[in-house]
Design goal:
Glutamate racemase; four-stranded parallel beta sheet; globular; racemase and epimerase activity, acting on amino acids and derivatives; Rossmann fold; Asp/Glu_racemase_AS_2; about 20% strand; Asp/Glu_race; alpha/beta; 11 helices
């Protein structure tokens, strides 16, 4: 199957291509912008232009024989009306957002790690609408994305941005009502540091990647 991979920057688009190619899919590389700053500016300030560009990328994917769109970006998924565009262009668009509608039953108090406030807010909204009784703490940090794009090692990113300090904080919330059990990776860049996060915490890590891949298989 050929999939059009659309994401916010060159780096996460390539991550998406590498991912699906490792599962024997064929990818078409369709980044929306070159840098994190370009991506953020378009998502916050140019919604109309952003959707126009996204539609253009989807049409390019169809022209190149793609059967589905693999929208490998949380913040971009939060910024465009992909359901409407999917219907208008008659092509399935797979995003991380559907993965958050049915969280594991152990999730009661989760931390949402997003690339920015927009994606953290929208993921929070989806979780609250579809998962009764789940409490959330939202955290948006584009510096993690920028460090990944700069090709720093996961160990250096954890150390320089004091992510272990943040995890220590959430692990030590004493309120029984808000005792954190899970960290949701609400940015497709973040699996890059997933293994290092797992080394410093026993909290569950929620990563939508597998669910997205499973949805690629379904007709």
């Amino acid at each position: 199957m050929k999939l059009g991979v659309i994401a916010g920057t060159v780096v996460d688009t390539q991550m998406g291509c590498d991912l699906i190619e490792s599962y024997d899919y064929t990818s078409v590389f369709l980044p929306m912008s070159n840098t994190c700053n370009e991506q953020s500016e378009s998502q916050y300030y140019s919604k109309t232009k952003l959707e126009e560009l996204f539609i253009k990328k989807c049409k390019t994917a169809k022209e190149q024989g793609c059967e589905k769109i693999f929208l490998y970006c949380n913040s971009l998924s939060c910024s465009v009306d992909y359901n409407k565009i999917s219907s208008e262009l008659n092509i399935e668009i797979i995003t991380p957002l559907e993965s958050y509608k049915h969280l594991p039953t152990y999730c009661k108090n989760i931390v949402i790690m997003g690339a920015n406030g927009l994606s953290a807010f929208m993921i929070d909204k989806i979780i609250r609408e579809h998962n009764k009784g789940v409490n959330t703490i939202c955290y948006g940090n584009v510096s993690i994305v920028e460090s990944i794009e700069a090709k720093k090692t996961p160990i250096d990113i954890i150390k320089e941005l004091n992510i272990n300090g943040f995890i220590h904080y959430i692990e030590n919330i004493n309120s029984s009502k808000f005792k954190v059990d899970s960290i949701l990776l609400g940015c497709t860049h973040f699996p890059y540091i997933k293994e290092e996060i797992e080394k410093i915490t026993n909290l569950k890590i929620i990563d939508p990647t597998k669910d997205m891949l499973d949805r690629c298989k379904n007709n």
